[in-house]
Amino acid sequence: MKRAVKISCLLAMTALFLSVWILSFARYAKQVFAGVALESHALTVKSFYKLDAGWPKFPEYFTGQVFGVAVNPVAGIVYVAQRGDSIPKVLMFTEDGYFLHSWNTTTIEMPHGIFVANASSPYSSVWVTDVGNGKYGHTVKQYTYSGKLLQILGTPGIPGSDLYPLQFDQPAEVFVDSKGDIYIVDGDGGLNNRLVKLSQALEVVWVRGEKGSGPSQFYIPHSVTVDAEERVWVADRGNKRIQAFEAASGQWIGSWDSCFTDDAPYSVRLTSDNKYFIVAQLNINRVSFLTAPQVGDIGKCHIVDAIQMADDVKPHLVGVNSKTASIYVAEIGAQQAQKFVPFN
Predict the structure, then answer these.
(1) Are 271 and 288 within 8 A, CB to CB?
(2) Residue 262 class from Cβ within 10 Å (0-12 exposed, 13-18 middle, 19+ buried)?
(3) Residue 46: its pLDDT value, please?
(4) Which of 18, 80, 134, 157 shows a CA-CA span of 20 to 30 A to 306?
């Protein structure tokens, strides 16, 4: 009888110990899981994109600092612009990550922005902005798809003031819309701080900007894009904001700054469905996704997703494949371009 009581007491004590241990473990596990969930939420809110770790197949072809990337979706070609001494300034890869070839880029000194114009043909032209101070710098150049120089905008090697629209000083980026109109942000630290619109015939349609922080003023305009609603969006880097203009008239629509208190916007591109802006923020190593507003008042900016990169990656400019929805990020610090693909 006494033996049975002892066994019963021992079992009860064991059960109590196990219950306490399980509850403690569950509480600890919940804390750990919550911590992971919180950290994951801080890195990406909706997880729109994931890294394609297999792109490119041969990253050793990156031999300099990667500043820009552009995509021809019809041909499935990715153009990467890089800087450095005695290296090719433009590399060509396939959408699958295979290296094709490099350009003979003796006419490019320091590429900044790169863009495939009217990418409805495998032979679409490629535009490059050159911020170099040598005999080929301060220009915007048009090339064939394979790297043959077609034309130069601006006077090579001579920086200009904003008194003459086609004389540039460190033009940061170029965007060509579906009608062939050309938008150039001129002033990656140079004399000019302006947005220039040219017709397909290279006639000046309008010019906006001067150095300052007011509406239609810029301090280092760094990237430009046009949305489906015929609005022009400019990453006004020095002022830590994005400004919007009407494409037809150049009239100022509004600006966003509340999303950029931590770091300035370096790029502005649209996802292939035109629902979100893709904004690279170099100093905090982040690519953010902002809701693109509908017609009317642009309201306030809203960040809905973000890709947090490792320290010192320094994402600079972004390219988008309108066919596959993939995005490519030019990374100065990591000296590479990376591909991100949609989760769905």
Answers:
(1) no
(2) exposed
(3) 57
(4) 80
Q: Is the dihedral of CA 332, 73, 301, 299 positive or negative?
A: positive
Query: How far apart are alpha carbons 233 and 106 in whole angstroms?
Result: 32
Cβ atoms of 194 and 162 within 8 Å: the answer is yes
For residue 78, the domain's CATH number is 2.120.10.30
Cross-strand pairs, 287 = 280, 307
Residue 257 lies in a domain: yes
User: What is the spatial distance between Cα 104 and Cα 88, in angstroms, rounded to a whole number?
Assistant: 7
CA 216 to chain centre: 22
Domain total for the chain? 1
Q: Which of 277, 230, 270, 223 is nearest to 250 (CA)?
A: 230
Residue-range definition of the domain harbouring residue 119: 49-342
Instruction: Look at residue 297 in the predicted model and tell me its pLDDT.
Output: 86
Task: Provide the 8-state DSSP code for 17.
Answer: H
- What pLDDT score was predicted for residue 190? 82
Q: Is residue 312 part of a domain?
A: yes
Give me the residues of the chain with pLDDT under 70, please: 1-46, 162-163
Q: Is residue 20 part of a domain?
A: no
Q: pLDDT value at position 30? A: 26
pLDDT at 6: 44
- Are 169 and 179 in contact by the 8 Å Cβ rule? The answer is no
